[in-house]
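job 3f2a | input accepted
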Amino acid sequence: MNVQAFNRHGVWAIYKLEMGRATRTLMQSLLTPVITTSLYFVVFGAAIGSRMSEVHGVPYGAFIVPGLIMLTLFTESLSNASFGIYFPKFTSTIYEILSAPVSSLEIVLAYVGAATTKSIALGLIILITAAFYIPIQIQHPIWMVGFLVLTAATFSLFGFIIGIWANSFEQLQFIPMLVMTPLTFLGGAFYSIDMLPPAWRTVTLFNPVVYLISGFRWSFYSNSDVSVATSLAATLGFFLAGLAVVVWIFRTGYRLKT
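job 3f2a | predicted structure (258 res):
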């Protein structure tokens, strides 16, 4: 039985194509997160932070940094991966990729890998920008990198699924704009859920974003709204769920061959 060799050249070609899109708009890609982060620190750090000195023993300005990074990671991973696969579908060039000697796994690796790379780069830019405003301490750097990569890959998979599902640019923006952004703001990005009334705290625990932000914040300050084990399990669960759906899409040809 012959096993097809891994086509690294095909993966690299698609990966370079996707990364080339980012380099063509390099200034906007770099400038936007810097300006956005600065504005968040002006509004949240200065205005609210002056009235709220610490959260769980962490200065408020430093407390919101993991939330800012996660907010960017969610939105950028979704938008980069969804547009990356939707545009070839929209222009019908997806058939050239599907007919090429590249397996389904290799296509996913290329598109999701490119989206993950761009999201991680933006997350690090936000981290560096935040360091100019307030001292930042990362107590568990390996865990921080692990959560960063895993979350970026997970939402890139979800973005890939959205890009295949969408039939228009409006649908492409629907989930990131009307679902993910509210979930992120209500998921403890800029506050601790312990500050909420008990009833609302219970409701908030049904928000999956809480577990992602909480685990990432733990890697900075060793405190979180939920246990790090629960956060890691939830993040791995979301990743495996996204991977399972993508595998199903390629096995069935859902919205790829029609």
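job 3f2a | Residues 157 and 242 are 6 Å apart (CA to CA).
job 3f2a | closed
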